[in-house]
Design brief:
300 residues; alpha/beta; Rossmann fold; elongated; binds adenosine-5'-triphosphate
Length: 300
């Protein structure tokens, strides 16, 4: 029987979370398909870490529901945590342990720990087994955290800002290769990131979050295809951004302005014409431009 839990590694419905008067998650719904690389993108404070903490059962849903492989992470932590490898944003590893001790310690929790794979990753990451965790550089610390999240080959790899602290070479050669390998093996990767070009390169699907809500979700290709960049020319110089209904953002000066719009291109072109602008060039915006346009629209 095909159920939602067979299809979705993560299913969140109407999740809300308040910290005092701060609404960190606001009726958020999200689905992540199994076997996909999913990128969660959001500005600082959008609620990404709060969402991830719910997936791990470290926060209990105040309203709404959270399911990981069909299980409630608070009611059935073993079912969820036994299938999930997690790299925290703060890389909170025990500083007094040596790298080899960290591996032995973590192995004890997971019957499916793969020692050969752990050793392969340790060498690939260039980590000295005798080095104390507290003496590792930020990047080495991130690699150690990634190693222990991966070495028991979890069904779901949950990475909170995995790139932070990693230099561009490590990010590209190691992190991205690992993410692809995990997905190619039919497992699921869920990662949060500020780096839109990284999400564009490695993710199959993405969601953009602002103010505790998902404003946009889909495959990376769908999101890109649904947005347009139009360069508009006006007959006379405009002192401030002209009002063009339905566009997310409008930047420029004088007679030439660039609009990023979502949805029907024809409607945006017609709205621009009503405002006195004609399209002189158009192209596909990058995810970065789409994100910035949404950020501006959400804070307006
Ligand atoms: P960043 O990209 O900066 O890591 P984020 O998207 O992960 O941000 P969260 O850390 O989930 O955002 O925070 C969402 C909001 O909830 C923020 O306004 C934050 O200050 C608030 N918040 C998160 N945890 C707590 C807490 N334990 N107590 C009070 N407020 C909190």
């Amino acid at each position: 029987m095909t159920t939602s839990a067979n299809i979705h590694a993560v299913e969140i419905t109407g999740l809300s979370r308040k910290f005092g008067s701060k609404l960190a998650l606001n009726q958020l719904s999200l689905q992540v398909r199994r076997g996909r690389v999913f990128g969660l993108v959001g500005a600082n404070g959008a609620g990404k870490t709060t969402l991830i903490q719910h997936l791990l059962g470290r926060l209990k849903a105040q309203s709404g529901s959270v399911r990981v492989f069909g299980f409630d992470p608070v009611a059935e932590p073993v079912a969820v945590l036994g299938r999930t490898g997690y790299l925290s944003e703060h890389r909170d590893l025990p500083g007094w342990m040596r790298v080899d001790e960290l591996l032995r310690y973590t192995k004890a929790f997971y019957p499916q720990w793969d020692p050969a794979y752990a050793e392969e990753l340790r060498r690939q990451f260039g980590l000295d087994p005798r080095a104390k965790i507290k003496t590792l550089s930020r990047g080495e610390n991130a690699k150690a955290g990634l190693l222990i999240a991966l070495a028991y080959r979890p069904e779901l790899l949950l990475l909170d800002e995995p790139s932070s602290g990693l230099d561009p070479v490590v990010r590209r050669d190691i992190l991205e290769a690992i993410i692809r390998t995990v997905a190619d093996e039919g497992r699921t990767v869920f990662f949060s990131s500020h780096l839109l070009e990284e999400v564009e390169r490695v993710a199959d699907d993405l969601a953009m979050m602002f103010n505790g809500q998902v404003v946009l979700a889909g495959t990376v290709d769908e999101v890109k295809e649904n947005h347009h960049r139009l360069v508009l020319r006006f007959d006379s110089p405009q002192l401030s951004a002209p009002k063009v209904q339905g566009v997310l953002s409008l930047t420029g000066s004088g007679q030439e302005w660039t609009a990023i719009c979502n949805g029907q291109r024809e409607q945006a072109v017609a709205a621009a014409a009503r405002a006195g602008g004609r399209v002189v060039a158009e192209s596909s915006p990058s995810l970065d431009e789409i994100f910035v346009a949404w950020a501006g629209a959400e804070s307006a």
